[in-house]
């Protein structure tokens, strides 16, 4: 009987370790907000759109650690890697930049460190659709863990 208990314990441990990290994400089409863009987001997110003329600002968030901000504007270049490179340089020169955590051709995750007690994570992800450029990042007024930012980054790819 002890082998059976050990086997059951192993199965339980493996099944728990395979559970998805973070909230379940579902497809979200932002066309109703004036953006020709689809992302994945948790169910029941709040969407707020502001048209500032040359830039559209759309926030998608909930109260459980998911908050992204999307800025749509005219694309100045059609190569996302050029925009990413420019944004990396801008971020690298900011006061609280600490290090890049990960990066790919369309964006990056980075750490901001105000002091030893206040560490925050953020990302930038770029999409070019036709003549429109989308810069996607974390929402502005919240502190995020690295796990939360990684989930948000994956949700916009």
Q: Total domains, how many?
A: 1
Question: At CATH's second level, what is the architecture?
Answer: 3-Layer(aba) Sandwich
CATH class: Alpha Beta
User: Ranges with pLDDT <50 over ≥5 residues?
Assistant: 4-20
Number of strands: 9
Helix proportion range: 10-25%
Helices and strands, in order, run as HEEEEEHEEEEH
Q: How large is the count of helical segments?
A: 3
Helices and strands in order:
Layout: H1 2-17, E1 25-29, E2 38-42, E3 46-51, E4 56-61, E5 67-74, H2 80-92, E6 97-104, E7 107-115, E8 118-129, E9 132-138, H3 146-155
Antiparallel strand pairs: 1-2, 3-4, 4-5, 5-9, 6-7, 7-8, 8-9
Overview of this structure, please?
The chain has 157 residues and is of the alpha+beta class. It has one domain (24-155): 3-Layer(aba) Sandwich (Protein Transport Mog1p, Chain A), CATH 3.40.1000. The chain has helices at 2-17, 80-92, 146-155; strands at 25-29, 38-42, 46-51, 56-61, 67-74, 97-104, 107-115, 118-129, 132-138. The strands form two sheets. The chain has a seven-stranded antiparallel beta sheet, with helices on both faces. A two-stranded antiparallel sheet has the order 1-2.
Which key features would you list for this structure?
single chain; 157 residues; alpha+beta; Protein Transport Mog1p, Chain A; 9 strands; 42% strand
In short:
By secondary structure, the chain is of the alpha+beta class.
């Amino acid at each position: 009987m002890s082998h059976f208990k050990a086997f059951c314990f192993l199965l339980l441990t493996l099944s728990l370790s395979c559970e998805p990290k973070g909230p379940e994400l579902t497809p979200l089409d932002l066309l109703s907000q004036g953006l020709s863009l689809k992302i994945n987001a948790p169910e029941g997110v709040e969407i707020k759109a502001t048209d500032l003329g040359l830039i559209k600002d759309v926030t998608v968030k909930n109260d459980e650690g998911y908050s992204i901000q999307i800025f749509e504007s005219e694309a100045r270049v059609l190569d996302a890697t050029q925009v990413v490179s420019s944004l990396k340089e801008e971020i690298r020169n900011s006061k609280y930049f600490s290090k890049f955590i990960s990066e790919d051709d369309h964006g990056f995750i980075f750490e901001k460190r105000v002091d030893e007690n206040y560490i925050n994570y953020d990302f930038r992800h770029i999409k070019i659709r036709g003549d429109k450029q989308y810069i996607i990042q974390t929402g502005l007024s919240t502190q995020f863990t690295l796990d939360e930012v990684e989930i948000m980054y994956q949700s916009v790819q």
